[in-house]
Design goal:
The protein is mainly alpha-helical and about 170 residues long. The chain has seven helices and two strands; from the N terminus they run H-H-H-H-H-H-E-E-H. It has a two-stranded antiparallel sheet with strand order 1-2. The longest helix is centred in the C-terminal third of the chain and has 19 residues. The C terminus is likely disordered.
Amino acid sequence: MERDWERLGRAFAKARTAAGLTQEQAAEQLHVSRTPVQAIERGRQPNGRAFAKVTATMRAYARLVGWTEQSPDRILDGQEPEPATQPVSAPAESPKSDLPPAVDRELRSGKTLDHAVVNLGSETDDDTRLIVVLKGAEDLSEAELDKLWQQWRRTRRHLQAIPGESDTPQGT
């Protein structure tokens, strides 16, 4: 049986509106950017393809709008969402970050695949560094993951070749 992701998206949008939340507010409470919320409500991944499975973000979204975690599966199977028996409380405040809000949300969304830290400082400055975090969709296929990993390996080699202050030729 074909799962109706657009029906699920419409149900999420209706429940979010009934809860008095904007997409931005829902995203903030879910600790993701607005993009996953928009994609869920559209019923399609940000890349335009249909979802393959119910994601952890969808289950968290279900809790946010007062449903059980199984409600997305129920809706996809043509049933109605199941109200949570426990009142849904706002998620605990996460520690405040000194990162810009958009960067903080992006770091919280998706699956962390890898990272790289490149020291850009000098002998007297070892705090200046470039930090790159590789993020991916929660439901990447093995083929997609392999392709991304190959791209990341090439990019990481370039990043690691960036000269730090001590690598810069000194004037004679």
